[in-house]
Amino acid sequence: MQRRALLAVAALSLAPRAWAGAQAEEPLIDSVRSALAAAIANRAPPKPHFANAEARQAYSRWLGLQSDRLKPRLAEAQTRTEFLETLWYEGARAGLEPDLLLGLVQVESGFRKYAISSAGARGYMQVMPFWARLIGNGDAARLFHMQTNLRFGCVILRHYLNIEKGDLFLALGRYNGSRGRAEYPSAVMAARRKWLTA
What is the pTM for the complete model shown? Predict the structure, then answer.
């Protein structure tokens, strides 16, 4: 246990910085804070549910294709599979397209679990620590846990999509802290195109 903690600290200190904007902490009304907290609170492990055999087959195809594509970035097969299964699950919970999420993770952290931006954003989806205080239990270190990070990121992006009335360009800009500027949304959409499976 102690050795694992030391390795994690060493990985944090050696990890290259991630590209993330200065996402601003915005005041949340109590009902929004409660809804977001409820959305991240369910600790159920990712278990996909399918309406029919066709949907299950489509998921299996997606998982196999994306695993092959992701191999150069996440070499260990179990880690890669767990990442993709969790990303798909958390995206489905939030109503987000998994290929968009792959593009976002590519731009935000380059698929580095322990990435830290110059603004202090953490993990795969570069979640700012203030979110742990606003809608979580306050433990910002948990943002390096894969499912926690992906869940927070998906819930936050869904929140911004709701605020921006479905405008993905503005929601992505808000997620990055660069609302109204094209560089970040354009980079995510370009990365998304490389992950598209259909």
Answer: 0.81
